[in-house]
Design a protein that fits this description.
The protein has helices at 3-10, 19-35, 44-57, 76-87, 92-118, 123-134, 137-143, 149-164, 172-188, 192-208, 212-216. With 218 residues, the chain is an all-alpha fold.
């Protein structure tokens, strides 16, 4: 039968094919982000204040000079990225928009690889999946809002994709990447550890739902 050759042609863990899908998706995402480049959610300015005080005063506090200090920020990794941007002289609103677009683009790229290479979807459903994300208004809004949501989305997708991706045995690299992404997710959101547990359970269920012959290759 040709089943083996078909499976081999689709490849397990190979580089994503059809780069035009990714190129088109990223171009559409970029156009949408540019049209919304002046959009900032009010809560973003909370992170800006903590980041600025951290860079200038050495502590991520809300009320410098007062006792007791208020250190109530919950998005540690995002505030740290903004803190370093401010320390090097970059605008906090501008940096938040650039980082939001960057992690949004990385999320699209990781989804592209996940659908094509990691789980082996065919070209048409993979393209529809990627374009559905890029054309989904809330995804674009939260990538351009100045908050940590696009970083959170990238970390969550990375954890799930690395845990679920196909292979022929234990994959140390996938485990390491998933662990690093899980740690970043914990630092990005206060409930990050809950997301990590949920994503792990979802990946386990997804693995159990695979055909038996596919599971036997793990």
């Amino acid at each position: 039968m040709n089943t083996g050759r078909v499976e081999q042609s689709r490849g397990e863990g190979q580089a994503p094919r059809d780069p035009w899908i990714l190129g088109l998706a990223l171009a559409l995402l970029g156009i949408q982000l540019l049209t919304r480049s002046q959009f900032l959610i009010e809560d973003a300015f909370i992170a800006f204040r903590y980041a600025r005080n951290w860079a200038e005063l050495g502590a991520p506090m809300w009320n410098p000079g007062e006792d007791p200090p208020i250190e109530g920020h919950s998005t540690v990794l995002w505030v740290a990225l903004l803190r370093w941007a401010w320390a090097f002289g970059f605008s906090l609103p501008g940096t938040s928009l650039v980082l939001g677009g960057l992690f949004g683009a990385l999320t699209v790229a990781r989804l592209h690889r996940f659908l094509l290479a990691d789980i082996g979807l065919r070209r048409t459903p993979a393209a529809l999946g990627v374009l559905a994300l890029v054309l989904h208004p809330p995804f674009v809004i939260w990538c351009s809002g100045g908050l940590e949501t696009s970083l959170q989305a990238f970390c969550m997708l990375t954890v799930f994709a690395e845990l679920l991706r196909r292979g022929t045995g234990p994959d140390l690299r996938a485990g390491l990447v998933a662990g690093l992404a899980a740690g970043a997710l914990d630092l990005t959101r206060p409930e990050g550890f809950v997301w990590v547990v949920g994503l792990g359970l979802a990946a386990w269920v997804g693995t159990r739902l695979r055909p038996r012959e596919a599971r036997d290759r793990k």
